[in-house]
Amino acid sequence: MEIRGTARNTSINNLIMKKILCPTDFSETAHTAIAYAAKLARAINAELTLLNVQSLFEYTPVELVRGKEMTIAGAAERLEAQSREVSRAFKISCYAEVEPSFSKLSTIITRKAKQFDLVVMAPMVRTTCTSSLAAAIRTMPW
User: Fold this and answer.
1) CA distances for 39 relative to 2, 91, 130, 136, angstroms
2) How far is CA 12 from the centre of its chain?
3) Pairwise CA distance, residues 35 & 49, whole Å
4) Contacts of 134 (CB under 8 A, 6+ apart)
5) 130 and 105 Cβ atoms separated by less than 8 Å
6) Which of 50, 119, 122, 126 supports an S-S bond with 29, CB 3.0-4.6 Å?
7) CA–CA dist 104, 70 (Å, integer)
């Protein structure tokens, strides 16, 4: 299977993209982005990493001490299951990463993206955590 880009009619099979990052919040639009990223990974023989960021801003200090681990563990289990399903369905290497953070979502994705060749993500609804995400992704220095 060969996929051709329209810009200069170059084959993406000749591009060196071996690591794809796909952030997810488990929404339907994120599932669509994961399917797209998985199809692309299969077409170019790349590995896919699913990333879920757990914002620690949403917790009270007591919840941070007592309940944070349960929430992060739950997200990790859910993401691991999704990763296994993607690996099985698309026959690709797919990994799962959950990152707890006090940083903005855009900061985390920008930092993580430097370790990957491509980021595939769904459009996000503007919230306090994601308000500058689209701008941050557009201005990444790759």
Assistant:
1) 12, 10, 26, 25
2) 20
3) 12
4) 123, 124
5) yes
6) 122
7) 21
pLDDT score, position 82: 97
User: Residues 97-136: pLDDT tens digits?
Assistant: 999 888 888 889 999 999 999 999 988 654 444 433 443 3
Tally of CB atoms within 10 A around 79: 19
**Identity of the amino acid at 36:** Y
Token output for 36: 């797209």
> Is 50 exceeded by the pLDDT of residue 59?
yes
Closest CA to 13 of 38, 42, 37, 35: 42
Using an 8 Å Cβ cutoff, are 59 and 11 in contact?
no
CA-wise closest residue to 30 among 124, 141, 128: 124
Residue 5 is which amino acid? G
| Amino acid sitting at position 18 | K
- State the average pLDDT for the chain: 78
pLDDT tens-digit readout, 67-108: 555 578 888 999 999 999 999 999 999 999 999 888 888 889
pTM: 0.72
